[in-house]
Structures are given as C-alpha cells and as structure tokens.
Write a structure and sequence with these properties.
By secondary structure, the chain is an alpha/beta fold. It has two domains: 2-208, Up-down Bundle (ABC transporter transmembrane region fold), CATH 1.20.1560; 231-468, 3-Layer(aba) Sandwich (Rossmann fold). The chain has 17 helices and twelve strands. The protein has a six-stranded mixed β-sheet with strand order 6-9-10-3-11-12, with helices on both faces. It has a four-stranded antiparallel β-sheet with strand order 2-1-4-5, with no helix packed on it.
C-alpha cells in the first residue's frame, strides 16, 4: 500500500482524519446523548400533561426526520470530498517541501503556487459547501418546531375554550414544547460534526482495511550467528499486481561469500529481486531459500536479521551520529559504534565535528554531505554484522576522495559475506564473482565479467556502449 499511495495523503489520514474523528466522538457524541436524554424526559412530561397536544407536536417528528435525511445525504458526500481534498493538499505541500530545490532550479515556483491554489480552492469550496448545507439543519429544525408550537397554541386555545384544558395546563405544556427546541437544534448541529467524523472514519478504515503483510506462519528458525549466506531462487514468479507477472521462472544460486552484481536496464527487476529476498513482498510461485530454509518458513524478524542494506538514497534518523550508527544493533556500546565507524572510514570526519559522536543530524541540525551520510549508513550496517549484504551502489554521486573511502569501507564490509550489488555503473562490478543480467523480469545471462564479455551477448553490448559513452 505504501508504494501505491501518496505519502501526504496517508499522513493526512492518520493526523487530520484521526483528529476529526476523535473530536466527533469525544464531544459531539456525548452532547447528542445528553440532549437525547433531555428530549426523552420532556416528551414523557408532555404525554403526562396532555396526550392530544403531544400527538399534534409529534406530527413534526417525521417531517424533521425527512429534512434531516435530505441534509445528511448531501453533507455526507461533501464532507467526504472535503477530507479527500485536504489529503491532496497535504500531499502537494509535502511534495513541494521535499522538492523545493528542483522547483527553484526549473523556475517552477509560480506553477507550484498555481497548483497549490487550485487544490486549495477546491478544498475551500468543498469546505464551504459542507458547512453551508450542514448549517441549514439547525434553522430548519427550529422552523419545524415553531410550526409545531403554533399548532399547539391553536389546539390548546380550542381545548381551553371547550373546557378540556386549563390555562395553567396549556402554559405548562407550551413551556415543555419550547424547551424541546433547544436540545433538538443542538442534536441537529452535532449530527453535522458526526457526519464530518464519519467521512474521516471512512478514509481511516479504508486505510486500515487494506491488505496487510501476510502473518508469519513458519516455525523454522535460522541460526543467524552461524549462517554462511547461501541463497537459492527456484522457479520464482512474482508480480506487484496478480494479473501482471514481472518475474517469470527466475532461478539463481549464490554460494556463501560470493559477490553477485545485478545489472540491467531500468525496470528490469533488479530492486525487486532483493525486495523478494527480504520478503518485502510475497512471491506468487516457486521458492527462495536461505541456508536451505524456505524464507516463508522463517519469521520476518529472523530472516531480516541476517541481512544488511545500504541504499543509494541514504536515510538517517533525527538524532545523534552515535544513535544512527547504533540503530543497526540493539544494545550497541560506544566502543561498538566507534569500531564500526573506523571500519566504515567515517571515524575521522566524525571526530572533527564540534560534538563528535554526539552531533545531532537530521531536521534542522548539522547537515552532512551525501558521501558522509553514506559512510554513516555503511557503519550502521557494519555494526549489525549481517551475513548477507544488499548494496545499491552508493557511490554514483559523490566526490572522488569520498568515493574511494566508500569503496574501501564496502570492500572491508563485503569480505566473507554473500553480497548482492544493484549496479548502475558497469565498470564498478568487473571483479564480482557473478554478474546477473536482467531484462523485463527475467535473468538473461549469468557469469563473470570475462565470461559474459566472451559470450558477446546483452551484457557485453551494454558494457561496450557504456564504455563508448
């Protein structure tokens, strides 16, 4: 679901929609119950005083119900649209915030402002319409009550003239009839907020009802400490959408300690291959084995504890450098953190920072270069001591000196570990034990660099064209 939804809209569901629903349930629902109790008490007293006048007053009830039903039907649609537009607005704000440098570099500030204004206007119109129609309920309820009040006055006057009711009796009845108008109007008004909460609840439950990760059902246990890192893909089929298969009968074997580079054009399925390995998605057919155990038979926690990941788009959390490195290992000590930082070639630049390992990063704190962030990500993976590494060639956008440091850190980290490298630049993976060339979800060629160059197939053509460029 996270891959198929806007982040801003999801955040709007768990913040704005949740707040709207909470407000509707906490205050408005309580008010409705209180006012409903008052109405029941008043109706009982009216029946005690005079049944005939009560029946005249009760004629207004079906009319009130009909009016409320019409208003509710209209406002429900409007409140739903309002929450949807608010989600779209939050999504755009987050998109602009994340991409503000790109927007500025292409001089698209005016276009972004225009797009924001368009969504904001739609939100404003839906908000205004929902408030207008919901605001009609209270005065309409008051009008119906006043009409009923007039009917009671006329009928009561006739009863007094005929001697079936005293003036004191009609006066007491009118007081109750007048008092019922206030709680009725309050209930009508609170029902509008309940409608807003219902629209928010619909979006929240739509989110909650989405298909979750399949529950772990396996009972096998992987001994991560003694694992060697052997991996097998056997006749794997997979598609993000069931009716569109991306992988067709993919088979692959990685021996312990092997370095495997996964290459191919964009959309070939390189990232999908490693996502399946870590069970971010479930395969449709076939099996994936780690140490001879089917990954489906392992819990995700047990499985993923054997892996370490370093992605090109580095993600660091808001906190100190020490906390970010220690994130890879529960209960890591300062000595563990420093040892990992030294192996990752980042201890030197950390010590040069004013607060060293206590330097805060993320948010509005110290800004590190992209290369320094990648080194910290490598240190975070090193401290976890994984048996299998997944590297998204994190060296394509840094300076030469930093790239050398990253390369050295990665080489030290890969030693003795099974490693999958998602390669974007072919000359960086010439020394890989196996190069896996993928295209359109299928493995087309497998072999060393020398073997594939000698074969003169797809990899050789791609490598030669890259060399020419």
């Amino acid at each position: 679901m996270l891959d198929q939804s806007e982040r801003g809209d999801l955040l709007s569901r768990v913040t704005n929609d949740a707040t709207t629903l909470s407000g509707a349930l906490e205050s408005n629902l309580t008010q409705i119950l209180v006012q409903a109790t008052s109405i029941i008490g008043i109706i009982v007293m009216m029946l005690v005083l005079n049944v005939q006048l009560s029946l005249i007053f009760f004629v207004a009830i079906p009319l009130s119900y009909f009016v409320m039903k019409l208003i509710t039907k209209k406002t429900q649609v409007l409140f739903r649209r309002q929450q949807q537009e608010l989600g779209a607005l939050n999504g755009l704000i987050e998109e602009v915030y994340d991409g503000h440098l790109i927007i500025k570099s292409f001089n698209h500030e005016a276009k972004s402002a225009e797009k924001f204004d368009g969504i904001n206007q739609r939100f404003f119109k839906s908000y205004l319409s929902s408030r207008f129609y919901s605001g009609l309920s209270a005065p309409l309820m008051k009008l119906i009550n006043n009409l009923a009040y007039i009917g009671i006055c006329v009928a009561g006057g006739i009863f007094v003239i005929t001697g079936t009711l005293t003036i004191g009796g009609i006066q007491a009845f009118l007081i109750y009839a007048n008092n019922i108008a206030s709680p009725t109007a309050l209930i009508s008004n609170n029902l509008n907020f309940i409608q807003s909460g219902a629209a928010a609840a619909e979006r929240i439950f739509e989110f909650l009802d989405r298909e979750e990760e399949q529950a772990d059902v396996g009972t096998a246990v992987l001994d991560v400490t003694n694992a060697k890192g052997s991996i097998e893909f056997n006749n794997v089929e997979f598609g993000y959408i069931p009716e569109r298969t991306l992988f067709h009968d993919v088979s692959l074997k990685a021996e312990p300690g092997e370095i495997l580079a996964v290459v191919g054009p964009s959309g070939a399925g390189k990232t999908t291959l490693v996502n399946l390995l870590m069970r971010f998605y479930e395969i449709n057919h076939g099996s994936i084995l780690l140490e001879g155990l089917n990954v489906k038979e392992l819990t995700r926690h047990n499985l993923r504890s054997a892996f370490g990941m370093v992605l090109q788009d580095t993600w660091l959390f808001d906190g100190t450098i020490e906390e970010n490195i220690a994130y890879g290992k529960s209960g890591a000590t300062r000595e563990d953190v420093i040892a990992a930082a030294k192996k990752a070639q980042c201890d030197e630049f950390i010590k040069k920072l004013p607060l060293g390992y206590e330097t805060r990063i993320g948010g509005d704190f110290t800004t590190l270069s992209e290369g320094e962030c990648q080194l910290l990500a490598i240190a975070r993976t090193i401290i976890a001591d994984p048996k299998v590494l997944i590297l998204d060639e994190a060296t394509s956008s840094v300076d030469t000196r930093t790239e050398i440091l990253i390369t050295q850190a990665m080489e030290a980290m890969m030693k003795g570990r099974t490693t999958f490298i998602i390669a974007h630049r072919l000359f960086t993976i010439k020394n890989a034990d196996k190069i896996i060339f993928m295209m359109e979800g299928d493995i087309k060629e497998v072999g060393s660099h020398a073997e594939l160059m000698k074969l003169g197939g797809l990899y050789a053509n791609l490598y030669l064209s890259a060399s020419d460029n």
